[in-house]
Amino acid sequence: MKLRLQILSAAFLLIPALLWAAGGSYQPAAVIPPPVAREFRGAWIATVANLDWPSKPGLPVAQQKTELIALLDRAAQLKLNAVIFQVRPMCDAMYASPLEPWSAYLTGVQGRAPQPFYDPLAFAIKEAHQRGLELHAWLNPFRVSSPQARLPMALDNITRTHPELVRHYGDLLWLDPGQPAAREHVLRVILDVVKRYDVDGVQFDDYFYPYPQSDAAGRSLDFPDAASWRQFGAGRGLTRDGWRRQNINRFIQDVYQNIKAAKPWVKFGVSPFGIWRPGNPPPIKGFDAFARLYADSRRWLADGWLDYLSPQLYWPVNSPGQSFPVLLRWWAQENVKARNLWPGLAASAVGAKFPAEEIARQIQAIRAQSGAGGEMFFHLRNLADNPALAAVIRREYSQPALVPPSPWLESASPAKPALLAVKGPGARFQWAVSGGDPVRLWVLQFRTDDLWTTEILPASETVRTFPYHSAPEIVAVRAVDRVDNLSPPAVLMKGSPASPGRRQTGSQKLPSPSN
User: Model pTM greater than 0.85?
Assistant: First the structure.
């Protein structure tokens, strides 16, 4: 009897909360909140030469973590929604790799693990996701060493384990892309990262075959792949240049297909040199990446071997031979499969080559260009350390934005979340997944005094409490899945429920491009 009374007492205590949640103060409503802005806002975190992180090799682990958290905090404060974290500067690893040695940029000695031990990539992913940021793993595929990194090689460096795959080219060491075993090694490294870490994307920059090198007399050097050409290319109907391009094309296609087989939601992107070939379009002049790096980036885009392309458009709007909007328009016209086009902007040039307002003009040009959907900044420390540039970013990114979706990966919307108003201190709202799909983010929108506010929250945040005196009139929550699809809203409204068919809408747009 005593146990029965305790159960009944507990049930009665629950009744007020259940009634309040079910229909006392807030009721489900057929209200449509404002649309959520869509714009990729990313920044590279460069670890090569300690450009962004860590500030120098061999820092204590606690300081490494503090520096990385500060960069991610800055990204979140500026309303970025992604970071592109360099995890493999040159056949080394900024993470616990079973295939390649620890990077000297991390600990000061190649092959030495951080002490006390931690995994920087796992740490970066956790901290980025807690701030609502996507994290894309940035790998350099074929670079082994550069003049600035002439450090002792670890015993498990590929120069020691497979020296037959490495070429000396000028003052560089480079994996030979003409060797199938070299491409296979890089693919294993990439898939190891994709399978073991919760990355949102994988990215390469502009290094495939190396940029041309010269000898001491200034004469141009050809890449030393004659043996590979004789073994794998000659007599197969291709020129040597065409064979080199085919090696990179095969590699890009293999990377894309294998990533999708492992984790279909992980995006793959490339940030190539911003000019495909001079004369495309006719006013454009400059370096020929197609002929010199053997990078046919236009084909990768046209054949759909990418989820996004971020051409490095590091020139001003008014540059006569490399006009930013002219190049942007050309890339948009070449994007026949409607992949995401998020050009790279040279934040590092602000103050040295052009003022911060140039970046504002470029953002506005991207917003005005059909088919373009955001940008990436090289690199994050410039946004953190340059007050004039940070002011421009704060102004242009006045509202939060979601990453644009990738409908070729998944177009179905996630299920509408379950939303409750729960009695507690203040007006307390709680939400949860109602379907089986994992949630990456939440979009919380609420209206107070007829003004809508939008917040983008990490998946771990599922409760919001408002003081009773400033409780919103309407609260709406949407789920965002791993490929940035948005669910229908779950909506609660103060007072009487909306009558059938009643709809209230709002608007929330990005700033319109200005002259």
Answer: yes
Q: Which CATH number is correct for 40-396, 3.20.20.80, 3.10.129.10, 2.60.40.1930, 3.90.870.10?
A: 3.20.20.80
Distance CA 93, CA 103 (A): 5
Tell me: pLDDT of 188 over 70.
Answer: yes
* pLDDT number for residue 150: 66
pLDDT-derived band at 127 (thresholds 50, 70, 90) equals: very high
Q: How far apart are CA 313 and CA 427, in angstroms?
A: 48
Q: Is 453:466 a contact under the CB 8 Å cutoff?
A: no
Phi, psi angle pair for 388, to nearest 5°: -65, -40
CA distance 276 to 267: 22
Q: Does domain 17-36+409-494 have CATH number 2.60.40.10?
A: yes
User: Contact at 8 Å (CB) between 233 and 243?
Assistant: yes
Q: Count of CB atoms within 10 A of residue 457's CB?
A: 17
8 Å CB contact between 81 and 405 = no
Separation of alpha carbons 332 and 221, rounded Å: 34
215 CB-contact burial (10 Å; exposed 0-12 / middle 13-18 / buried 19+): exposed
- Report which of 225, 304, 210, 214 is spatially closest to residue 257, judged by C-alpha positions: 304
| Spatial CB neighbours of 219, under 8 Å, sequence gap ≥ 6 | none
Cross-strand pairs, 138:
86, 203
Domain spans in the chain, listed from the N-terminal domain onward: 17-36+409-494, 40-396
